[in-house]
Design goal:
Shape: elongated
CATH class of the largest domain: Mainly Alpha
Structural class: alpha+beta
Strand order of the largest sheet: 1-2-3-4
CATH topology of the largest domain: 434 Repressor (Amino-terminal Domain)
Largest sheet: 4 strands, antiparallel
Order of helices and strands: EEEEHHHHH
Number of domains: 2
Number of strands: 4
Number of helices: 5
Strand content: 15-25%
Distance between the termini: 42 Å
């Protein structure tokens, strides 16, 4: 992955990274946060990625950070309430253990749709209430 452009906007530093010949991904860091987050979108030109960044306000970044924090608490709660270890949880859902560890530590964010699917399966199989 090659960084093709860096844009500073408010409290965020956005990087446009080239994934392939014609695909780009946006990463960002907020002030005081060393972790890099990714926006779950693929762009097919640098200009479309720039346009997207221009449409994001600082409040949008704050909302995304709040959602990430909520997802972090939710994944930890699911694992604890299912009475499984992180390893057992990873094996049960056939998800790499490293992904579970990253989600629980907050270094990556678990997608919201995946949290909902995991919760649904655990409820249907009677592992949580």
């Amino acid at each position: 992955m090659k960084t093709v452009k860096i844009i500073n906007q408010g409290a965020c530093e956005y990087s446009i990274n080239q994934l392939g010949n014609c695909s780009y991904r946006i990463s960002y860091k907020t002030d005081g946060n060393r972790r890099t987050q990714h926006i779950d979108c693929i762009f097919y030109s640098v200009s479309s990625a720039e346009e997207y960044i221009g449409s994001i306000s600082n409040s949008d970044a704050a909302v995304k950070k709040a959602i990430d924090n909520e997802n972090l608490l939710h994944i930890r709660h699911l694992i604890a309430s299912s009475n499984m270890t992180q390893k057992a949880f990873a094996e049960y859902f056939n998800i790499p253990l490293r992904s579970i560890e990253n989600w629980c530590s907050g270094s990556r964010s678990c997608p919201g749709y995946l949290l909902q699917l995991m919760q649904y399966k655990l409820k249907c199989e009677g592992l949580i209430k």
